[in-house]
Amino acid sequence: MVLGKRKKRSATSWRITLSWEKKRGGRQYYYKSQRVDGKPVKIYVGSGNKGAEAERQDQERRLQQQRDKQHWETILFHVDQASHHTTELASLVTLLYKALLISCGYYLHKGHEWRKRKTL
After folding, report:
1. Which of 48, 92, 101, 104 has a CA positioned 20 to 30 A from the CA of residue 7?
2. Span between the terminal Cα atoms of the chain, in Å
3. How far apart are CA 88 and CA 41, in angstroms?
4. Does residue 1 carry a pLDDT above 70?
5. 97 inside domain
């Protein structure tokens, strides 16, 4: 008999985490699942206290990974916001320096070179 927890991955798919297995005699054993050459392989960790400690460490590792992911998502959100504000600021500065040059009597020659208008 296999003991596992069902976790909802999306609206249509489910995944079962199989860590503890119950063998003949009712004894439970803790296994880790890893990929070797692209194929899933179960690795025996232990039973009793050793298995419980390994499960606790796995849960802590998963929780830390989740915290790290949330931390980086927050950082990326702030970087994206800063990038947006920087782009907006650059557009305003460009508009401001063009307005300043025009007000000082310059014009844009052939779309790429600022020249001073000659006064008569």
Report:
1. 48
2. 99
3. 52
4. no
5. yes
